[in-house]
Design goal:
It contains 13 helices and 19 strands. It is of the alpha+beta class. The chain folds into 2 domains: 258 residues, SGNH hydrolase (Rossmann fold, 3-Layer(aba) Sandwich); 201 residues. The strands form 5 sheets. The chain has a 5-stranded parallel β-sheet, with helices on both faces. The longest helix has 20 residues. About 17% of the residues have low confidence.
């Protein structure tokens, strides 16, 4: 079996981000999220490292992060403490306001409809659980009407930090993107501010005028802030409030990010969902199947995904190319629920049920994106191989390739690129467990994620070789990589 099911689609995607800006959003289970530490980072971190560093694709924007990005513990706890998303960038709240009991002046909950329909998070997103603050992985930040939040020393400032080694280039002029909600009433306001890290007092490099949130509507608002060149070797902090300052409500913050205006090609990747224990069926319950054109299963409308696309659309290339990455299967193989895709009613753990749910997710995202003028490419990775009882997963990997053939999509079979025996030999499963701990092969560790990501992104970057063979291998016949790329480009143009 080939490692990549439709190399021509992968090649066209690669050629697009080599000539213009492409936006990438990713959905997955716990293997995508994990905790953003050097010990347990997941695909969210390693896929971007592979894309931007190992394979040197241009990076035009940092990962957009929700205003209240957080990790839910087990059992779920409101306002849990550890951010788990972000490649060389992270939420800049020092987590103090997220620890323990909710601060009476700050809520990662309580957003009324229609505002809560646009929230970055997925999962238990209905009015009752939102009031409890039980958002799955991605969240948002809110100061309620009539409340005033004071940012104490320590960084509780509703913001993000961009590390000095981020491939976007913190030593270049950047543009901050702030996505927030208008309000029908009240006297709320905020004032975005950019600071240079590693300097005494964190020197201010740019600050927007005060922005009133009372706009007379609940529409999505996008504010930008030009951030001039900083000193070499400094990280950047983008905050919504000055340390020691006040932020009066109502205020609802959706997403934060930054772009490099000088970079006109490449990729900006954002993880929209990284949900432990989730299957494709769970994702469909959150975003809704294609026969639910208005409201998803938990009350989330198209706006949940569409809001992020609307933000990215202000910065993406002229073709509005969207790269959607789906990383599921590890939990699907144990999902006894009935599928929710276009066929419906199939056992989700079977290949047919998995394929039905996969089609349902792809149909839904495709519908939301195409209604906004995007051209969508899907990249499917149906889990990582295991050393014991991998046959059910292998069947789902094969089904993913079958489904991909019916879309502008490709499925990459990690078992071909990185067989389970090699993962085991590398100590690439979580906690380094051996075959006796096979039940814990639900997750990789940093070795497994790092090597897997390099191979998966490498398959896309070398998709011309997948089509035409290597110069020296049995599928050869081309003199050089550049010749292979030229032949592949001609083939891609003929296919259009």
């Amino acid at each position: 079996m080939d490692a990549i099911s439709s190399p021509l689609v992968a090649l066209e995607l690669r050629q697009r981000f080599q000539r213009e800006r492409v936006a990438k959003i990713s959905f997955g289970d716990s293997n995508r999220g994990r905790t953003n530490s050097s010990l347990t980072r997941g695909y969210d971190w390693y896929m971007q490292r592979a894309l931007f560093e190992t394979h040197a694709a241009p990076c035009w924007g940092v990962q957009f992060l929700p205003g209240g990005e957080m990790e839910i513990g087990s059992p779920p706890t409101p306002l849990a403490t550890t951010p788990n998303l972000g490649f060389r960038c992270e939420q800049n709240n020092n987590n103090t306001i997220l620890k323990g009991a909710p601060d009476p002046d700050v809520r990662q909950s309580g957003a009324p409809s229609p505002q809560w329909q646009r929230l970055p998070g997925l999962g238990d997103q209905n009015p009752a659980s939102v009031e409890e603050g039980l958002l799955a992985v991605n969240g948002y930040a809110r100061v309620l009407d009539g409340k005033v939040f004071t940012a104490s020393t320590g960084g509780q400032t509703f913001g993000i930090k961009i590390d000095l080694d981020h491939p976007i280039g913190t030593d270049q002029a950047l543009k901050a993107i702030v996505a927030w909600s208008g309000e029908l009433a009240g006297s709320g306001s905020f004032r975005p501010i950019a600071k240079e890290g590693g300097t005494p007092g964190f020197a201010t490099i740019a600050q927007a005028p005060t922005i009133a949130t009372n706009t007379g509507d609940n529409d999505l608002k996008i504010t930008t802030l030009d951030m001039p060149v900083t000193s070499a070797g400094r990280d950047l902090k983008l905050n919504m409030i000055e340390t020691g300052g006040t932020l009066p409500g109502p205020f609802l913050l959706y997403w934060l990010g930054a772009v490099n205006p000088a970079v006109t090609t490449g990729v900006c990747e954002t993880t929209h969902a990284a949900l432990g224990g989730w299957s494709l069926r769970d994702l469909l319950l959150a975003i809704g199947s294609d026969d639910q054109p208005i409201t998803g299963g938990n009350g989330q409308t198209d706006e949940g995904v569409g809001t992020l696309l609307d933000i990215l659309a202000t910065e993406v290339g002229p073709s509005k190319t969207l790269w959607v990455s789906l990383n599921f299967a590890i939990n699907d193989v144990n999902d006894a629920g009935l599928s929710l895709g276009p066929v419906g009613g199939l056992v989700s753990s079977t290949p047919a049920g998995f394929g039905d749910n996969l089609r349902g997710v792809m149909n839904r995202i495709k519908r939301i994106a195409e209604a906004r003028g995007w051209t969508v490419f899907f990249d499917i990775v149906a889990g990582h191989p295991r050393t014991i009882n991998d046959a059910p997963l292998a069947a789902l990997r094969a089904e993913a390739a079958t489904v991909a053939n019916d879309y502008n999509a490709f499925a990459t079979d990690l078992s071909v690129l990185y067989p389970a025996a090699e993962i085991l030999a590398d100590g690439g499963y979580e906690d380094g467990l051996t075959e006796a701990g096979q039940a814990h092969q639900l997750n990789s560790d940093v070795v497994g994620y790092g090597k897997s990501a390099d191979l998966l992104i490498g398959a896309i970057m070398e998709s011309d070789f997948a089509l035409f063979g290597s110069p020296t291998g049995p599928g050869g016949g081309v003199a050089s990589r550049s010749e292979a790329a030229s032949i592949a480009l001609a083939a891609a143009e003929d296919a259009l």
